[in-house]
């Protein structure tokens, strides 16, 4: 469901997003968690497995169920950190090889 390379400035500098967050009483991280929980619940209803990037497990304050698969891509060193959280991984670290666009 995403979570890689989130540019928080896009949200902190957007008036509508800030108004929505203020109206809901949520921080960006709380809203991200709520979105993730809702999205993952819908995926599970469809008997699908949630998949996220490692930032969701290591940088953001989101709750991930143990059946979530985390794509570890930034560093091989992060694989163990994600596994220690009880999550499954796809290990595809960019510290060995990385195709970027353009």
Can you tell me about this structure?
- With 102 residues, the chain is mostly helical.
- The protein has one domain (9-91).
- Helix content is 44%, strand content 11%.
- A three-stranded parallel beta sheet has the order 1-2-3.
- β1 (51-53), α4 and β2 (69-72) form a beta-alpha-beta unit.
- It is globular.
- The protein starts with 8 loop residues before the first helix and ends in an 11-residue tail after the last strand.
- Keywords: Hydrolase, Signal.
- The active site is at residue 5.
- Belongs to the glycosyl hydrolase 20 family.
- It comes from uncultured fungus.
Task: Give keywords.
single chain; 102 residues; mainly alpha; 5 helices
Number of strands: 3
Beta-strand proportion: 5-15%
User: How would a textbook summarize the main sheet?
Assistant: 3 strands, parallel
Tally of helical segments? 5
Instruction: Report the span from N to C terminus.
Output: 24 Å
Strand order of the largest sheet: 1-2-3
The succession of helices and strands, N to C, reads HHHEHEHE
Helix content: 40-55%
EC number: 3.2.1.52
Pfam families: Glyco_hydro_20
GO molecular function: beta-N-acetylhexosaminidase activity
Protein name: beta-N-acetylhexosaminidase
């Amino acid at each position: 469901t995403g979570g890689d390379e989130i540019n928080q400035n896009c949200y902190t500098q957007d008036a509508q997003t800030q108004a929505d967050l203020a109206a809901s009483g949520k921080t960006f991280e709380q809203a991200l968690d709520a979105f993730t929980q809702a999205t993952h619940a819908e995926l599970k209803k469809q008997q699908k497995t949630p998949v996220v990037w490692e930032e969701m497990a290591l940088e953001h304050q989101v709750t991930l169920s143990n059946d979530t698969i985390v794509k570890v891509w930034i560093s091989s060193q992060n694989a163990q950190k994600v596994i220690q959280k009880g999550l499954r991984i796809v290990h595809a670290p960019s510290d060995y090889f990385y195709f970027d666009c353009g």
